[in-house]
Amino acid sequence: MEIELVSADIGGTHARFAIATVQSGRVVGLTEPVTLATADHASLQIAWQAFAAARPALP
User: Fold this and answer.
1) Among 3, 18, 38, 41, which residue has the least CB neighbours within 10 Å?
2) Beta bridge mates, 46
3) Looking only at Cα atoms, what is the longest distance across the chain?
């Protein structure tokens, strides 16, 4: 079975989000990260919304 999930690295200056593809418990793919300045986003929710807007629509 293959699943996709969001990988996030939230730090003091940047929030990075990427989509990881996991198959049989192993990461088999990782998209280029979307990097956002944390100073430009008042909360994780707002950064998440910016990440979602930057991604192509899912089927």
Assistant:
1) 3
2) none
3) 38
